[in-house]
Amino acid sequence: MINLAILISGRGSNMKSILQAHKSGELEGINEIIVVSNKVDAPGLEVAKKEFGANTIIIRPGESKQEFENNLIHELQYNNFLKNDGLICLAGFMRILSPEFVNLYKNRIVNIHPSLLPSFKGLNAQKQALLAGVKVTGCTVHLVDVGIDSGPIILQKCVPVFDTDTEVTLSQRILIEEHKIYVKALKLLATNKLVIKENRVFQI
C-alpha cells in the first residue's frame, strides 16, 4: 500500500473522482490520500474535506519556485510520502514543477491531459483540436518528465469530435473519460502492474 498526494489549484473534478474511487474500494493499492493546493480558495479543498474527510494542505506560492517546492517536499515527507513508493497526482494543478523536483520523484508524478498526446500539448487542448479540424481527440494519462506534456504515456481514451461541438461540449465529454482512465492508471501504478522502458509504459 502506498500514499497518494493529489495536487490541485481549482475545483478538483478529477480529484473528486479519485477520492470517490478510493472511498468505494475501487482504487486498490492506495492507503492514505492527501490533497494539496497552491490556492487558499480552491473549491476542491472544501469538496475533499466535507465530502470525503480528506487531509487537506495549503502551500502558498511564496517568493520563488524553489521555496514553494521545498515546502511541498516538507509536507510530503511529514505525511509519510516516500519518493520511491508514493505517488503524486496532478489534478488541475496550475504550476509547472521544476526539473529538480520532477527528477527527485522520477516516474512517481502522474498527470492527465485533455488530448491524445503528443497532439495538442499545453493549454487549451480542446480548442486546439477544434481549430485543427480533427475528427477524434481524447485524453491521456502520462508520467511527468521535465518537458511539457511529454512524459511516458500510461493510458489514452478516444473521444469523437462532432461537427456541432463547441469547446465547452467537447471538454465535457472528454472530462467524463478523464475520470475513468485516471483512476484506472493510478490503480495500475499502485499495484505495480506497469513496467517503464525508456519512453514506453507496458502493462504486466
Using brief descriptors, characterize the structure shown.
9 strands; 7-stranded mixed beta sheet; alpha/beta; globular; 2 domains; Rossmann fold; 204 residues; 25% strand; two-stranded antiparallel ribbon; single chain; 6 helices
How would you characterize the overall build of this protein?
The chain is α/β, with parallel strands linked by helices. The protein folds into 2 domains: 1-106, Formyl transferase, N-terminal domain (Rossmann fold); 112-204, 3-Layer(aba) Sandwich (Rossmann fold), CATH 3.40.50.170. 36% of the residues lie in helices and 25% in strands. Strands 3-2-1-4-5-6-7 form a 7-stranded mixed β-sheet, with helices on both faces. A two-stranded antiparallel sheet has the order 8-9. Helix 4 (99-104) links the parallel strand 4 and strand 5. The mean pLDDT is 95.
Write the layout of secondary structure elements.
Blueprint: E1 2-8, H1 13-24, E2 30-37, H2 43-52, E3 55-58, H3 65-78, E4 87-90, H4 99-104, E5 109-113, H5 125-132, E6 136-143, E7 153-160, H6 167-190, E8 194-197, E9 200-203
Parallel strand pairs: 1-2, 1-4, 2-3, 4-5
Antiparallel strand pairs: 5-6, 6-7, 8-9
Largest sheet: 7 strands, mixed
Radius of gyration: 16 Å
Which structural class best describes the helix and strand composition? alpha/beta
CATH superfamily of the largest domain: Formyl transferase, N-terminal domain
Record the strand order, biggest sheet. Answer: 3-2-1-4-5-6-7
CATH fold group of the largest domain: Rossmann fold
Helical stretch count? 6
Spans where pLDDT lies below 50 across 5 or more residues: none
Helix-strand sequence:
EHEHEHEHEHEEHEE
Second rung of CATH, namely the architecture of the largest domain: 3-Layer(aba) Sandwich
Tell me what portion of residues adopts beta-strand conformation: 25-35%
- How many discrete structural domains? 2
Principal-axis shape equals globular
Task: Report how far apart the termini are.
Answer: 18 Å
Which bin fits the share of residues in helices? Answer: 25-40%
- The total of beta strands comes to 9
CATH class descriptor name of the largest domain: Alpha Beta
Q: What is the average of the pLDDT values?
A: 95
